[in-house]
Amino acid sequence: PLTAKVNxxxxxxxxxxxxxxxxxxxxxxxxxLDEETLRTACRQYRDNFKRYYPGNSQIVYASKAWNCLAxxxxxxxxGLAVDVVSxxxxxxxxxxxxxxxxxxxxxxNKSRGELEFAVESGCTIVVDNWxxxxxxxxxxxxxxxxxxxxxxxxxxxxHTHEYIRTGHLDSKFGFDPNQVxxxxxxxxxxxxxxxxxxxxxxxxxxxxxxxxxxxxxVMVQWxxxxxxxxxxxxxxxxxxxxxxxxxxxDDPPSIEAWVKTVSESIVASCQAQQVPLPTxxxxxxxxxxxxxxxxxxxxxxxxxxxxxxxxxxxxxxxSDNPRPITYQSVYRAxxxxxxxxxLTETLTIAGLHCESGDVLIKDIQLPQTEPGDILVVMSxxxxxxxxxxxxxxxxxxxxxxxxxxxxxxxxxxxxxxxLVRQDRLPERLKLNSR
Length: 434
Ligand code: LLP
Hints:
Layout: E1 4-6, E2 12-14, E3 17-18, H1 19-26, E4 30-34, H2 35-52, E5 57-62, H3 69-77, E6 81-84, H4 87-95, E7 103-105, H5 112-121, E8 124-127, H6 130-140, E9 146-151, H7 180-189, E10 193-199, H8 210-228, E11 235-237, H9 255-273, E12 279-282, H10 286-289, E13 293-305, E14 309-314, H11 323-327, E15 333-335, E16 345-350, E17 359-366, E18 374-377, E19 398-403, E20 406-411, H12 416-420
The protein binds ligand LLP.
Ligand LLP binds next to α10 and α11.
């Protein structure tokens, strides 16, 4: 899906920009986001809902995958709403100019301050638990009715890494399904709350379609219950979770297949249970932004462990991509300045951090390389920058947006000054200058 090609200098080009030139210009490591790929994915969701779902629909970008001003602005310009999960994400989306009517605020432990910020901003709050529901009911008394949706735990299992499953019964997220009646009746009596919909999310990087079919059935039952209590619940958000291809071995359904399945399942459940069609919402993150970005690194030192493996180190690692060390995620990479060279070596790509586990890719086939060559790790748009850290006080990389041969900075590279900006040195600790 990336608008990539190999140019006549045997270098990788993305969005019409030579990756090696980008690195020379913007430094290394570098997140390179292909605008066309991101926009195409937004349109695939949008157009396929129009095609397969007879009612209204709304796509919400789960910005936890990558929240920054430019991405919020791009998805909003494609007509998507934005899901935020903290005051910081909310602030970023608002700063990007996203209309609060198109913002949904999630989270299983929003602070009172965050709730006040959300109420003031006018976004819709996806309520996760009793404490939040009661806090909101009391906050909202003083102003006009607050728009909420209710997050429920559907009790649906799916096959993905246990850290990123959320729909099973012992998940920390959402109201227990046994409490649906109680929650709905509380909401129906809270004049200050206007419940517009119901939400559930079952997990991430999911390759099967069946869990979302099952989810549709469960959620339509809840919709029916809400209607019977006279609640104006017209929106149903089935969450995100569609997996993407990180290596050749991955074979996820297409966006079209996913949207078709979800749409048909909701329509079928509504017909079977005689419930009017809701506004169908979904909340993809990874499948929108994941394939649209690559990370370029510069190759450095090399260590050969005879008969075992050869390490090749890059100038980044778990601080800019914590997914391999966190979830044992697998990535694919190419050498951007030797695109057609034969793959003659099996290598382990190590990060620069002081941890043996800081390995980005195990046993990858690469051509003969030299220090200074550019390694490009593919599909790094989701949960890389958003989970990046300053471990070992490594500054966060820059990010550029590429399109039609133009590159614009969307994330300025952090400097050493940025790293100490929030540090404070109490007077009594100041060292005597020598
Ligand atoms: N909606 C809710 C309520 C979510 O919790 C999530 C993801 C999404 C939507 C978007 O799911 P997606 O379409 O991106 O699968 N850090 C992990 C992934 C955590 C996912 C958290 N929730 C990773 O790097 O794999």
